[in-house]
Amino acid sequence: MSILFIKHIGIEGPGTFGSFLDDKGIGYETVDVFDGAALPEDPAKYGAIVILGGPMNVYEEDAHPYLKDDDRFIKDCFRIGKPMLGLCLGAQLISKASGAKVGRNHEKEIGWFDVELTEDGVNDPLFKGFDKTIEVFQWHGDTFDIPENGAHLASSPLCANQAFRYNENAYGLQFHLEVTNDMVVEWLDAYDDEVKSMGDKVSREKIIERAKEFSAEYNKQAIKFYENFLRIIK
Length: 234
What we know:
Elements: E1 2-7, H1 16-24, E2 27-32, E3 48-51, H2 66-80, E4 84-87, H3 89-97, E5 102-117, H4 119-123, E6 133-144, E7 151-155, E8 163-166, E9 170-173, H5 181-190, H6 192-197, H7 204-233
Parallel strand pairs: 1-2, 1-3, 3-4, 4-9
Antiparallel strand pairs: 5-6, 5-7, 7-8, 8-9
Helix pairs in contact: 2-3, 5-7
């Protein structure tokens, strides 16, 4: 089994998912589409596709032409039933490729927030062993609609659609289970203007403090999630 990660910016990589695969001895490749790398012609050779995040929006295809390639590639994966997992931007790309709408959320979420699993989420194998309420790291301003005939898996007060399943094995998460402490700090530095634009709603210090105290537990939660995903794609 080999997993392909599609990367949209240098600082948003596989994170703890990559470390998990290393520990399991599972091979993976990362394609840097933002740097001009071409997506594979045939996704069939991979066990699964993981589509990572990025600060761009799915509808900014003129500014980021590789988003059109993402869309084509995801639709190819739909056609052959290839398992996929989209994280943040990746989830929005899967939703868009399914024909659902992606647009601005009424409020940005930056930092640590609780999401609530729906009944479908509690019963989905991707969240087997999870509590109904999950604390997660968020960084997004857009949101996705649930694909037609898809399953709505998680919600939160600030963003109704936090996770979905489309077909049997394509999943989208609005939140970031893959982040490490270093990634959290790196994002806060790189996207400092966005953080400052949120005023008192976002505290850099509180985000970092929570990352440090929650890191071990968050990593355990992420590992449980990755193990569930591997069971689904086998």
